[in-house]
């Protein structure tokens, strides 16, 4: 079997290489790629920190895809756990059955909150998890001893991204991602300002005043829509893809919690990208001095080995449902899939056994220091922000005024492309994003290596990132005559 498999991979590699120039133009593939004119590179293999492309180039996966590969690629322990599970039980329907890996994974996740959360719900993507979390928030108010059916609204933040289903996208505040679907999106969601210190803080405004202003804005929004109509406030503790690793300032979430408590609304924290160790603690909210009512989790849960996400529900919510109908009126075909749960469980056990969250915190400080040493004086790097192993660089045309580059220059994507194609071996994968200035303009890249990264790896990542950034920004300045 091994020989046949290797032979198949060899044939695939040759076929892909033979067609590589054609595939890059798009017409040869039957896949509906995100870009029909420029199909993506083919990745043949991955191991540890590296991807191997069909053109034989090695790429440092400095972002784990979309901050997904938290223990690196190709871990045989996870592979073996998945294989062992599929030989025992491949599938069972959660409406009728549970299974050992689902129970064990949920118990591990609840225990990781030190008793703050009560139950776990496992699905296959962050978008699905966000939809489920919103539905649970609505059901909570229907199951109260004195039901509150008038609560159906949600308040989220500008520059946020909570998923691509219509429900999750409705909650999201990223203008460009919402734009073409706007007529289809729900009208029961409104948005307030993000806690973006770089873009949102007024000149000479200290942290305390900034927090007070944002809390007052949220309070006014409750009043505008009717405080008795709001189910929950939704936010990312560290904003990921939409803004590029923007953390909240100290005291922000405590002030937001006070506003929500004043009006009886829940808090849903979206930790799909920033949670489960990515920011240096198991849960990002553990650095905010609050506990959410519902917490959405995702990318770091399965580390890319399985498609998995979910949410954790707090005691406040679960106690109400337990005393009420005792049911959650929601479910999915592949909910708590045995193979998926087995893979995610092994990833989480590896993270715990190797103390990788602590390593993420330590290496995060190394990454922060090297990024600031390398880019603080760069004329087109406006902001360097993040937490743990979750860092972003925001690029600007004018550092003094924070003027973003015109969107048609696609600076972030060009930096990504430069990293992949640069002559040095290995190249580097950086996660590009746009809209960080106003929802349309503003370029950033994310750096989010695996939790088991070393100091030497971090140095290599920063050097390769610098080469890509300098190369693209120099060309852009030359082209613009700056």
Concise overview:
The chain has helices at residues 2-18, 20-23, 64-67, 76-88, 100-111, 126-143, 166-171, 175-178, 197-200, 207-225, 252-263, 299-302, 315-323, 338-353, 356-375, 411-421, 455-480; strands at 43-47, 50-53, 58-61, 117-123, 153-157, 189-192, 230-235, 238-239, 246-247, 266-271, 294-297, 309-314, 381-387, 390-395, 427-429, 431-434, 443-447. It is an alpha/beta fold and 482 residues long.
Throw out a few tags for this protein:
482 residues; alpha/beta; seven-stranded mixed sheet; four-stranded mixed sheet; 17% strand; globular
Structure description:
The strands form four sheets. The protein has a seven-stranded mixed sheet with strand order 4-12-11-10-7-5-6, with helices on both faces. The N and C termini lie far apart (59 Å). Helix content is 41%, strand content 17%. A hairpin with an 8-residue loop joins strand 16 and strand 17. It is α/β, with parallel strands linked by helices and 482 residues long. Helix 5 runs parallel beside helix 14 and helix 16 packs across helix 17. The chain is globular and about 65 Å long. The chain is built from 17 helices and 17 strands.
